[in-house]
Design brief:
two-stranded antiparallel ribbon
Length: 220
């Protein structure tokens, strides 16, 4: 390569991810830089604290020791502000999608119960109690939620990995840059889906059994 118009031959020994779309960045050792600029002198140093030493304590100690010869400041490699904004935005989108999905499910359950009015009336006439009919609705809806979790979670993880790899590769960060959700959130989702569906099924069935059997079978 040519650096500042001068030819330079080197060996790549590592690489790092740069999320900014600013082109290729090469980090040289001081010895290599002095091959191009013999008088190059470092004007900044980066210090990594030892295990158990906080950044605040390390900066305070260096400021005390180097107060007269150097300026010391802390560098945050992982700013929480930007990450939290993205996480909140994604969380809001996921929450909105969840509300829409639950509303669609509730509408489908109410429609199904309305279409089965005659069946509900017959079951009531045969002696089924409202509690049994509500339990039937809970089991049916919870089964739908369980099936959705079994099918949706694996497909969601595959889709997330494919989309995140496409985005991070496009900005130069490389594949597998975004972390998958942990086991805890996945377990919570797997348990919450049947539970929420069961509650919706109970409410939809409860509304259906409130109608007297005679009214449900009026046209029979």
């Amino acid at each position: 390569m040519r650096i500042d118009g001068r030819p330079f031959t080197g060996r790549v020994v590592g690489w790092y991810r740069e999320t900014e779309d600013s082109g290729d960045i090469v980090a040289l050792r001081l010895a290599d830089l002095r091959m191009l600029e013999p008088g190059a002198v470092p004007d900044a140093y980066r210090v990594t604290t030892a295990a158990g030493v906080t950044a605040v304590a390390g900066v305070a100690d260096l400021r005390t020791r180097l107060a007269s010869v150097a300026d010391v400041e802390a560098i945050d490699d992982h700013p929480a502000g930007g990450v939290s904004v993205v996480r909140v935005s994604i969380g809001l989108i996921v929450g909105l999608l969840g509300i829409v999905a639950l509303a669609n499910l509730m509408a489908a359950l109410l429609t199904a119960n309305a279409e089965q009015t005659r069946v509900t009336g017959v079951e009531q006439a045969l002696g089924f109690t409202p509690r049994q009919l509500v339990g039937q609705g809970v089991v049916a809806a919870a089964g739908t939620g369980f099936a959705a979790a079994v099918v949706g979670l694996p497909l969601g993880l595959v889709a997330f990995r494919a989309l995140s790899n496409a985005v991070t590769s496009g900005i130069g960060a490389g594949p597998d840059f975004a972390a998958l959700p942990g086991g805890g959130p996945l377990v919570v989702i797997a348990l919450a889906a049947p539970l929420l569906c069961g509650l919706l099924g109970a409410e939809a069935a409860r509304r259906a059994v409130r109608r007297p059997p005679a009214e449900s079978l009026r046209w029979e």
